[in-house]
Amino acid sequence: MNEMFENRNTVEISELGEFGLIDHLTQGIQYRQTSTILGVGDDAALISSANSEIVKAVSTDQMIENVHFNMMYTPLKHLGYKAAVINFSDICAMNAVPQQLLVSIGLSSRFTLDAIEELYAGIRLACDNYNVDLVGGDTSSSRIGLIITGTAIGEAPKDKVVRRSGAKPGDLICVTGDLGGAYFGLQLLEREKSIFMENPEMQPDLSGHDYIVGRQLKPEARLDIIKAFDKMGIIPSSMIDISDGLASELMHLSKASNVGMTVYEKKLPIDQDTFNMGVEFNIDATTAAMNGGEDYELLFTVQQSDYNKIENDKDITVIGYVTDLSQGNKLITNGEQTVELKAQGWKAF
Ligand code: ADP
Ligand code: MG
Q1: Ligand 1: does its nearest atom lie under 6 Å from the Cβ of 169?
Q2: Domains in the chain, ordered, with CATH?
Q3: Which tens digits make up the pLDDT trace of 291-340?
Q4: For the whole model, what pTM was predicted?
Q5: Does 294 contact ligand 1 (Cβ within 6 A)?
């Protein structure tokens, strides 16, 4: 091996994990620009020009074939839609509204023009639905399969931007929509793939599971909630989108806000189809909600005095409350047991 590329560092990347690696690579970065309001460590970076009352939120997310998606069961139009939407979701997680999108793609030669057009039909549909402009990107060839990198830009009034770091003891912990569906959608697609691989005569049977399969293949960002917050006069004290699973996101809020998080199993919003799939796969629906990920719902905290504003909203569920840091992060189960939350995150390496 060429000496230049010898690995002198004895720590394996897998030991660090995704979040450890990001911390390692970005530790000690000093921001030089006064326009850099918030750098690494939240759902999006925040940028503002001098004296502006408006803050720009910027975020990027990458999807790689056979890591984040499998071409056997992912329609390209859905893939394009998802690649755009997961970026919009990070902008929404700052209580900002997405406005522009850049998309960079790495293509392997097996892709036809038709296929790429499908991918872009999905990206453009997402932009239509979210009122976002596709303003640029980059195109290159790839030898490892399809790579899609989206970068979204959005904005919010300076005094309305929400970070991961503002949760206070006593605040209510809330989630939007329901959880765990995207995980079981993936389990179902993987199962049907295995059956098909063993016996190509067998056609995939996804009937009756439109909801969870849709949750996996065609997620939505909760821009509707961001708009509802504005109407209700709510500014969450902290917020994050649920890409890696509720447990991991609770721990991010806890770490950034220096507080503890207590949530109740019986409060977790779980759809009926998700619950049924849990029984069929013999995987607890609670486990899927806590650790599954890819639901792209919002997890946020609000002051108790805001409770009356959210209590009748069908899309918002209060699942627990914020405590002192010393209380740690825990799930109170239906059997009244206390389970300490563990860092999960997405194991990329
Ligand atoms: P999310 O799940 O919201 O997309 P991530 O967990 O991917 O967030 O990233 C956490 C933070 O680390 C973000 O602020 C992101 O911009 C930053 N980050 C991730 N990867 C890198 C990298 N390779 N270099 C610099 N910053 C990074
Ligand atoms: Mg995020």
Answers
A1: no
A2: 43-160 (3.30.1330.10), 164-340 (3.90.650.10)
A3: 999 999 999 999 999 999 999 999 999 999 999 999 999 999 999 999 99
A4: 0.93
A5: no
